[in-house]
Amino acid sequence: MTLHAGVIAVQGDVTEHADAIGRAGRAHGREVAVTEIRTAGTVPDCDLLLLPGGESTAISRLLHSEGIATEIVDHAEAGKPVLATCAGLIVAATDAGDDRVDNLGIADVTVERNAFGRQKDSFEAPLDVKGLDDPFPAVFIRAPRIGEVGEGAEVLAEWDGHPVAVRDGPVVATSFHPELTPDSRLHGLAFFEETDRASAPAGE
Question: What is the pTM of this model?
């Protein structure tokens, strides 16, 4: 069965994420059709959803003006997988610490924008991520920092003593850009391990 993945394409690293979803799907033996989403009406048909980085205030404004925001919330509340990265994490959080961002509230965390520095402070770090056997080469660019983590959310990775990846139900959210590396295991962790378990015969 073909899985339908949507990449929110109002702003951000759309092509890179679409490629990473395809690679991760093949690694898990799954066929995936990826659609770029810029208007309302497509999210309800998606099995998987990705909210990429970019500029969080612009993303938030466009999601609401285009009518996509409520569809993303409905997708997550239905238990369908979501991966939110960098600015996507800020928009997905319950509190971005910025009144200009109209949060979706699908990841129970607070976020501090650009806490890891400006563009010139970008860096790559090997992260130990819960669920991955080997360190993941995480790319941090104007990265937000996760502050408080709600009781229902699980920390998947930390850097410099701060959470940088969390899972809250079907939502995986990261401070870093997993699409800026040929390693697609983070997309696999967010999307295909959950769908693999859901489709496995009972008792496995």
Answer: 0.92
- Identify whether the C-beta of residue 157 lies closer than 8 Å to the C-beta of residue 128: yes
Please calculate the CA angle 74-1-132 and round it to the nearest 5 degrees.
70
Q: Write the CATH number for 75.
A: 3.40.50.880
- In the predicted model, is pLDDT for residue 26 greater than 50? yes
Active site residues: 86, 177, 179
Instruction: Tell me the pLDDT tens digit for each residue of 141-176.
Output: 878 889 999 999 999 999 989 999 999 999 999 999
Element (H, E) at 109: strand 107-112
160: in domain = yes
Are 110 and 148 in contact, with CB atoms under 8 Å apart? yes
Spell out the alpha helix ranges (H) of 68-115: 69-77, 87-92
Domain range for 108: 3-199
* pLDDT interval class at 200 (50, 70, 90): very low
Whether residue 204 is contained in a domain is answered as: no
pLDDT band, residue 113 (cuts 50/70/90)? confident
Residue 71, number of CB atoms within 10 A of its CB = 20
The total domain count for the chain is 1
Domain assignment present for 63: yes
Residue 136 lies in a domain: yes
